[in-house]
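hi! just following up on the protien thing from before. the input was this:
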Amino acid sequence: MILMRRMALVLLLVTASITIGISTAFAADYGISYLRIHPRIINPGMEVAVNVMLTGEFTDANPIVAIFFNGEKVADNAELAKGAVSLAPGFQLKFVADERFTAGRQVELKAVMYYQGKEYTYTYYPDSVYKDLCADAPWRVQGWSANVPVEVTIFDADMWSCELDWIQIKDANNNNSVVASHDFGNITIDDPRWSYIFNNINVNNFVVSGGYINILVHMRYWEMIFFSYDFYQYLRIKVANEPLPDAAGWYYGDTHYHTSYTDNYYEEGGSFPMIARCGAAIGLDWTTTNDHASNNSGNQAPIGEFANDLQTGEWTPLGDSCSLNSTSSFKIIRGEEVTVKNDAAYPGDDGTNDNSAHLLTMGNSYYIEGPVGPDAYFEDGDHSNLKSLTSRLQLLQGQPAGIAYAAHQSEAWPVPVFEDIIPWSSDMFSTALGFSSFKGIELYNERNFFFTNDGNYIVPDEYVNPFPVFQAQADWDSNLVRGVALWDSLLCTHLNPIRKVFAAGGSDAHGDFNYRYTGLTLLFYSNIQITDDAFGKVRTAVYCPNGMGQNGENVINALANGVSVVTDGPFIIFGIDADGNGSVFGPHDAVIGGTATPPSLEANPRLVSYWKSTSEFGPIQYVKMIVGSANGTTTYTQALNNYSGYISFDLTRFVPQGQSRFYFRLEAQCPNISGYPSYRCITNPVWVDLTAKENTSAPKEMTEADRIMDNLLFKGTER
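and the predicted 3d structure came back as:
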């Protein structure tokens, strides 16, 4: 979960001050030590509770405490103070918000205590560095008896501890009946990160409505012993009747995921126990870890906003975490997201040439730092630590099995407060393609189809329920469309000689097993938003006919050779039978990621393809074939309306005129939802080289998975 929660520590700390000249010694005896508003986002007509705790022994009279919002007095304890019972140490004031409290507006909360002719002021700013509460569960499970892991996490309790009373898991489809609960007995939580996983819940414990489980997580905790609070968060889980569509030898994974080793002022990643549980529940077989490698260079201690991100000394523990939480059927593969300097100009840039871009590494044996320095994302910050792309790829080049992809290469974040993260420039691609370890681009990053920033349904640390207010975004796939155009451009301009550029896809989730919770709350500014992106929503399927390997090494090899497809739903694969002998595994043939070398166009070379979808994603509406050459691309479309099928045709009539090197790639798309494109699968290309010399190598020894693929491509069945 990207929490964006600890902006500028000095600005966000709760501050206490005495407004009239009082000695330090006296100030320590009297004051206000605690202040909190509930709810934290106020609408007119709401009853608002303010909890206050005082410091000092008030022997002669109770102090008067007044509450101010944005400088206007809204309540005081004058009536309570008349009583004989002491108000110290804690009490609660209530009032009804009027029209001054516009919907969703966050305000400054200030308490002023008047005692013995002096004033003591305590100001609290919403969403400080204090605790952040989060519940999470997989967005999808397979089967009606599947396990449903639910995790509840408390972040930053080391800044202000709490006493945890209980957590309940409720069925929102069944009158919020309690499905599971745990009584913690008011244990003290004072850790930077604390979590608890309910791992003995199954689908059959819930009422499934419309194919979904709807969960309400309800937590009660106490602060300062006297004040109790409730936290509510809704989660929705798709109960799939069928596995994700695939074929023998193909394994699904996420090539961009952040674990708990991503931990900075703005972001938190997912816990390893939940990665393994949710990955298996969703139907994934593997994931890479791509935590921000943001430590400083040399022997400097890590400082600044990114002090707790992945550091040199954590590289081995990260690998241990991956190994310990991997299983025979689910692999966690160590990698990084490395920040590099990007000197390209960009619209709206401040002209300082201190922009950055991100590089995904996977399977590298040694740590590659991507330092950003203290305050590196602030306009006035220190950018001197940013490293060049060349220097990072040089470090990767000598590592066995280590590969790299350009991260979210078509996206940009020109945020006013931060320094820009901008798209990869043409110069960066030219540099990267000079290194054999650079394999391609993250074509598909995040699937943000639904979106909401409704402050009535997103109240941090109190109430989170995006589902009633989710809205489809008309331009949700604009980055993907730009990415595909960029990719085709790179493919077409690197054919003579052929320099392969592969595509991968990942969710870029930070935790986010159910939905993506991100945004920024700074003093009076709030931009919290939720989308339906989540771990495994964007997937890369790789072909590993001999299995994934003990540590996922065969997955890395498949990504290195582009034997993969990118999808958020359907599945399509293809190959070229270059000599027309009824197989795609002969010496002249090629499957996805390979190069076909037809002995001649008279050899009857054929393109063969197999596709599959399920009711979860809908029937495949059409398949596109894109043919690319030095002259650009041509697209051919075949309309369909089925869940599986295959096709075989003579490809000679699609050969670009006058070209000897070109490529084919396929796209499959399911029906639209309310006018918006829904699910699609994009294959890596098969290249064709008509200039290659005759291939006299011995035929490949086929695996059982190879035989099944041949049957699917040529017959539409596994046999």
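The radius of gyration is 29 Å.
The longest helix spans residues 478-492.
cheers
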